[in-house]
Write a structure and sequence with these properties.
The chain is of the alpha+beta class. It has helices at about 40-45, 70-75; strands spanning about 5-15, 20-30, 55-60, 65.
Length: about 80
Amino acid sequence: MSETILKVHQVSKVMGKRLIIDNISFETLGGEVFGFLGGKTTTIKMILGLLAIDVGEVEICGVNVKKRFEKALAS
């Protein structure tokens, strides 16, 4: 069984008065190909730390992006 590489849990993003990302959650496993429609750029920017995550958590290889940014991205 492959390990979870990326975990996005109940993430939301507001820009101005607009809700851009609304409570998304997903996981990807090692070796898995993943795609999604809508909100791709904003979600990827939050995963990479280019945009702040308003609500929710992102983990890369089990490391929380908010709490241990450099270690998460090193993974």
